[in-house]
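Journal club prep, notes for RB
We'll compare a predicted complex against what the paper describes. Inputs for the protoporphyrin IX containing FE case:
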Amino acid sequence: MGEMFSIWLCFEGLFIIGITHLVYKWRNPKCRGRLPPGSMGMPLIGETFQFFTHGNSLDLPPFLKKGMEKYGSLFKTSVAGRPVVISSDPEFNYFIINQEGKLVQKWYMDSLSKTTDRGEFPTTVSADKITKYLRNLVLKHFGPETLKQKLLPPVEEMVRRHLRLWSTKESVEVQLSLLSMVFDLTAKLLFNYETDITQLSESYVSQLFTNFSEIMMCFPLNIPGTALYRALKNKEKAVNMLKGILEERRRAIPNRSHGDILDHVIQDMRDETFLSDNFVATTMFSILSANIEPIATSIALAIILLTDHPSVLQELRDEHEAIISSRRVNNTDSTITWDEYKSMTFTSYVINETFRLANITFGILSKAIRDIEINGYTIPSGWTIMIVPTAVHLNPNLFEDPLAFNPWRWKDLGSTASCKNFLTFGGGMRACLGADYCRMVMAIFLHILVTNYRWTKIKGGDIIRTPILQFPNGFHIKIWEMKSWRTTERVFTER
Ligand code: HEM
């Protein structure tokens, strides 16, 4: 009995020593210098749960806020099984963004990498070639030249269609309805896909093409019940649907032009062997995902903010009414022209301010490929660096009264705020190529909304950061076309 007890004590001792050693090693990772301050949390779990603690406003999520207060603008942590250095230092961010391929490389953490994976490639095809193909494709079809020459009319037509439908409903949940509008628009541009919008299931769209931002920092556990499992299953369904569209197009009358992006890709498939069906369908999927959730969320936030800020809404409306009046003077009943779009100055301030507060991209992630020295600290090679646009956008030294929705601030900030302090669309070699397109879609949407419609809030509009921006109860509105609004207004006044 006594012997058993000694053996048990011995095991217990070894176990405690083992655990202590593990905890010590975890908390003091190897580094050829001094690591930035911060905590690595518990072995394996790190500070993942703290990272995801909700914030109930547009303000910085609690984990980030506390970390910055305690350790400053650069601190270490561990999230989703990886060592991470979080940066809110504009100078360091700018430096890192411009070091792609030299000191850092693009890195989406383990979970997101699985969902952005574009399948198997011949070993002769480099990752750079694949990225280059995607970037060129997006630039050609969503870049500034195409916007000017081609995209204004289809965007306007789609927004008008959807807003008209909204106005026939008793209540509209803004974000879900926007998800289906942006899906519809992107599907039209990608593969000329006409959906019957009255039939389109909003929740189906949101299920298949959204929630990818959520899995950015989750554990790479692909088992039933996890976020990653759901995301991969949804991706599989969506990619299969897109492969079906590709096959159908190939079977259809050869050489018939549809004028969409799929035509272009099918043409490229004849010359480029790496363009497999799987790659093409996954690329379409990536473009749909890049469009749907970020654009819908940004516009939804703009509507919430405008509803809460009547003076901003009034100035916005004045700008757009002036465009309509000038059309009347010139006797034109045209659709929105490029010059009109370019004249929407206050609108561009509203859009910048919405993007600044929305912080759609919570973190811009890179992996250090060499040890990086910064302010006396060393970020070891292999570590993840997370640039947090939210922390820059809500820094009171850069944006006065940062939580206020104040589009007028952009009048004075101008382009000086653009490169280091405005990170909504990333920067450097990895900068977003859909940025101009997103701005245009938002401007057209706001133009049609404020000149043709009036709306009133029914319920919702609460905002949380998980750290991704979300509207937990949705934002429900009743929207009227101007003519019927005037009647409704009269009825209310006469009462
Ligand atoms: C509100 C909407 C959007 C936001 C906030 C946004 C944000 C970003 C950010 C922050 C990056 C840099 C990512 C990184 O460095 O890791 C990026 C890259 C990119 N985005 Fe967007 N984006 C938006 C919409 C779009 C749209 C609509 C498209 C396509 C039409 C698009 C296409 C791209 C592409 C091609 C890249 C470069 C990817 C690469 O080089 O690997 N984005 N975006």
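Talking point for the session: The domain at 31-494 is CATH 1.10.630.10 (Cytochrome p450).
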